Amino acid sequence: MSARLKAVDLARRLASEHGVSVEQGKQMIMQSLGGVPIGRPSHPSEAEGLVSFTAI
Fold it and tell me: How many other C-beta atoms can be found within 10 angstroms of the C-beta atom of residue 11?
């Protein structure tokens, strides 16, 4: 099972347990991670530039 499917399953489970929507379940996950500054998880290609820059 991919990480994305596991995250969706977790969001669904949280939503069910707390009586909220799946979207709110996703927000609960994001909040537990300390939030995401750009409002969404980054893609590996976006992190690649940062890693390259900090390696210099």
Answer: 21
Query: How many whole angstroms separate alpha carbon 55 and alpha carbon 49?
Result: 10
Please report, for the chain, the start and end positions of each structural domain, with discontinuous segments joined by +.
3-55
Provide the whole-model pTM: 0.57
Query: What does 1-56 look like in DSSP terms, one character per residue?
Result: --HHHHHHHHHHHHHHHHT--HHHHHHHHHHHTT--TTSSPPPHHHHHHHHHHHH-
Q: pLDDT tens digit string along 9-35?
A: 999 999 999 999 999 998 898 888 887
Query: How many angstroms separate the CA atoms of 14 and 21, rounded?
Result: 9
